[in-house]
Fold this protein.
Amino acid sequence: MADDQVDLGFLDEQIKRVQGDVRVLKTDVAQLRADHSRLEDKVEGLEGKIDNGFRAMEARFEQVLRTMDTRFEKVFQAMDARFEQVFRTIGTNTQLILEANRGKLGS
């Protein structure tokens, strides 16, 4: 039995090595957590900027649509006025032609 003794010095070294590795791992995990937290903050900031960008684009799009609607409305009003003028001219010319023909037929 005396020959079966375990060298405790070897085990002590292994335990110390494992404890050192655990300390390094704890430090690395703490650093990863800090990095992760900073990354989350940056992502939230980017999400805010993207949301603001989309809101600005939507507002600009709405403004462009309103401007186009206004311009089309003005074009259609001008076209309507021109058609009215053409129809009045056609009516007047038709009346003149009819009166001229009546005058020729009556004389």
